[in-house]
Amino acid sequence: MRPIDGDTGLGDLPPLPDGVTTRDGMVFDPRHDHWPLGGLSHTRILRFDELDRLSPGIIQRLKWLLIIQFGEKSFSYGDNLFSNFLWFYRSVLSMLNSPLERIELSHILSYKTMLNDTTEWKLGVLRIALTDMSRLGFGIASDEVLEYLASATIRGNIKGTSIRTRDPRKGAFSDPELLTIQSALNEAYAHGEINPYNFALVWLFLAFGCRPIQIAAMKEKDLLVSETSEGKAYALRIPRAKQTGSGHRDVLKARYCSKQIGALLERVIENNALKREMLHLELGEAPLFIGRKKGRLSGLAYHRTSSSIGSSIDYTIERISGLKGNSRRFRITLAQRAVDDGKDKWSVAELLDHSDTQNVEVYFEASPAMVLRLDRHLAMELAPIAQAFAGVVVESEEEARRGGDRTSRIYDRTLVDNITDPLGTCGQMSFCGLAAPYACYTCRHFQPWIDGPHEAFMAAMIADRKRQEDDAISPKIFTIRDRSILAAAEVIQLCSAERAT
Hints:
Strand 5 (about 225-230) and strand 6 (about 230-240) form a beta hairpin. Helix 7 (about 175-190) runs antiparallel to helix 8 (about 195-210), helix 8 crosses helix 12 and helix 17 packs antiparallel against helix 19. It is elongated, with a radius of gyration of 29 Å. The strands form four sheets. Strands 5-6-7 form a three-stranded antiparallel β-sheet, covered by helices on one side. Helices cover about 45% and strands about 10% of the residues. The protein is mainly α.
């Protein structure tokens, strides 16, 4: 088609088809003013009747642009174009007295004055839409607009600030925060406070730093299980995201999967059995995390959307730990910890499943991690906030579960009197392979005695931490027991409160 700059007649355009299929496999009628569309990311109704200040010619050209984009690119891409045009319309064009026949430079300049350094990128997206329409032969903007946009320097969407500054709310989780999440997650699951699906979801984000859309695209068959002489071995095929021209499951990447995560996902698949039967889903072809709605995406029936998975993560993390967590923070944390551990940019790109290294540079620009100097005073101040202690304080051994079993006593072998002065009792009936007594204070089975030598034990841990710090040992090593220190401080406070009553 030839450029028809400003021409609002419809003779140059073919009539809208009665049916269009998006790249994601959804079918809709573009002749209507409500387009119910969606992808694996989210669903939405695009409402063209809101654009009542635009002429029919402009609306038809806008529809043709979106028909082409939805057919060639992802739903999220086309939705972003429409959303940004809608922001422009609401900000400037909706104020007009008569239907607009052509977008003029005055409209663009007026919109630009409403944007700031952090929102100017919206004008960049609008530029893409307007120049694409002109290039395709059905432009809606004047030559002045196109010339201005072609020569204008427009700030892009500012990225990576939370990573560079190690933002405590949006950036990587600190080591204590990560330990808090892991401990709270295990405790909540053990007490039946969260279901197996959300438990598995959070551990997938912890282990792999996936994008929500990658987990949304997973099927049961993506868990690969093999029998070895040492037991089961697992691998997980993770769908690649943001691959130009590829569908949600066109490209899969096999990743090593630990036995713990693999066994957890096996239980998820076992729990799916009843849902599979009710929904008539084939074993293996069913989603790993089955949704409530069938959806309209070809080959992805009953797959959850990435937005619903993201919401589950946000809700679960805040509920169990009180922290503001989201899927992106887990991804940032995985990459930042790899950089802090000395990994090169190619290894980090591989870890994040990036095709190149251009988007991992920001992790190497991050400010140095701050290491807390933890002494007794600070430990006592932080203890009520950290809530690292998971057990129950008992007044005496007789009150403890397994109190009659002397082998259940917990001692600190580094203390001088390690035979007659136990710290508490272990209520666990089975074998425990954790390092006592350091791991005990954060374990729900630990029952510290009210008169146990907790003060001496905490002092010994703090002294050992300071020694390692003074010896210039890596913070990754000397901060390992920080959560145990905070748990011991909380026990000291609880014991003091009990004695005072």
